[in-house]
Amino acid sequence: MTSVGIDAMEIWTGKLVLDLPNTFAPVKGEDPEKYTKGLGLHTSSFPDVYEDIVTMGANAAKQLMDRKGLTPADIGRIDVATESAFDNSKPVSTYIAGCLEQVYDGDFRHANKGERKFACIAGTQSLDDAYNWIKAGRNRGRAALVIATDTALYERGDPGEATQGAGAVAMLIDEDPDLVELSTEQGYGSMDETDFLKPNQQFPSVDGKRSMQVYLARMREALEDYESVAGRTHPDLFEYIPFHTPFPGMVRKAALLGFRHMTRDTDIEDDLEAEIGRQPREEDFETWDDYEEAIRGYMDELKTTEQYRDWYGRVIEPTLDISSRVGNWYTGSVHIARLSALIAAADEGKDMTGKQLLVGSYGSGAQAEIHAETVQETWLDEIEAVDVDDQLAARTEISFDDYELIHDVHNHEKEIEVEEFTQPEAEFVFTGWGRMNERRYEYVE
């Protein structure tokens, strides 16, 4: 059976950068280590005045198409995942297609276009849609373009303000992929939740404590469901485990939970028994509360063990680098975690061919998905072609006052005139509104 997966990836980061420990923390009167050690964040990306989810998505897609030598005729599907959309009817994919048609011969007239919404998991759902479309044989030999693009802003003063970020990930989904093949097995955990939502509002309403609990619960359910079709998982089976990463500190909790689950009734639990005992079993306790307390105590000890720290450093830590420098990209966050891991592998000179990733996606509201990916023989060429470090280094640093201005620029309820902080070059830019209040774009050489 023909393999299907991610053939190539590109990113486009917002062109402004805010230093959290040195610029944000002093104004907030907070310890810089709250961000660097607590949240695991150092800097956040923000869009300039002429940037938004369309320009970032279109610019990432153009980079990908240029590098792969593609034309619109090669693309049969454009799916955009976002939770930052500004139109309740017209999908962002049509805007992005319109941008790309300004610079390529031909058009996307015969490409299926859509927009996915399920908080941060929508990017992975769009991958699934493209995968299924190709596997069903409906693609006519064409590839799918999947774009995850978001500007993650919170109300000023909100506890989530430090996790903000802006950027886009473009992925080419095709047969015989050059980067990773997607597994046929998937696991899901989903429930009607109100942990994070935007009911007719731009900025989210968040129950922080509940959001963490829901994230972990749905991830556990998805892992159990994945194992029901793919078989038991084990920490040694996967070279990296990229998680949805709203901020790296949240992944620490998910990773510990996953490690405990995967090591239950394994050689690793046997090895740890002399040091911290065996994992509590529910049947050994009279009440659920007693069992929960015992589990918490076990996990507190587990995270201090050499086995866990070594595994975390090898399998999880490399997935967090990009996120720690750009903040939360919502629908793109798990996909930059994958990219971060593969860049780390390339830097270390690892042979990743045939190695497996276990990808854990999540969207508030709430749903988690677990699937595996197999790294392809040509992975290194693809990863070395992505200019992540150059993009991040080229960002323009802003002061706290500048940050407040740019936040107001992208606040849909405010109309303010601010000069751009950077000069656009060879990219799509937002130019204003049309006669029906549609957003308009052009390509600047």
Please tell me about this protein's structure.
The chain has helices at residues 20-28, 33-39, 53-68, 92-100, 122-135, 208-230, 248-263, 267-276, 288-302, 306-316, 321-326, 333-348, 379-384, 388-393, 400-409, and strands at 4-13, 16-19, 43-46, 75-81, 112-116, 143-152, 165-175, 180-190, 196-197, 205-206, 356-363, 367-375, 396-397, 427-433, 439-444. Helices cover 39% and strands 22% of the residues. Helix 3 (53-68) crosses helix 4 (92-100) and helix 6 (208-230) runs parallel beside helix 7 (248-263). With 445 residues, the protein is α+β, with helices and mostly antiparallel strands. The chain has 15 helices and 15 strands. The chain has one domain (2-442): Thiolase/Chalcone synthase (Peroxisomal Thiolase, Chain A, domain 1). GO terms for molecular function: hydroxymethylglutaryl-CoA synthase activity.
State Rg.
22 Å
Rough outline: globular
Count up the helices. 15
- What's the arrangement of strands in the largest beta sheet? 5-4-6-7-1-8-12-11
What is the end-to-end distance? 44 Å
Oligomeric status of the shown chains? single chain
User: What is CATH's topology name?
Assistant: Peroxisomal Thiolase, Chain A, domain 1
**Second CATH tier, the architecture:** 3-Layer(aba) Sandwich
Order of helices and strands: EEHHEHEHEHEEEEEHHHHHHHEEHHEHEE
Biggest sheet details: 8 strands, mixed
Give me the CATH superfamily.
Thiolase/Chalcone synthase
Task: Detail the poorly predicted runs.
Answer: none
Helix/strand-derived category reads alpha+beta
> Overall pLDDT, averaged?
96
Strand portion: 15-25%
In CATH's first tier, which class applies?
Alpha Beta
Number of domains: 1
How many β-strand stretches? 15
Task: Report helical residue fraction.
Answer: 25-40%
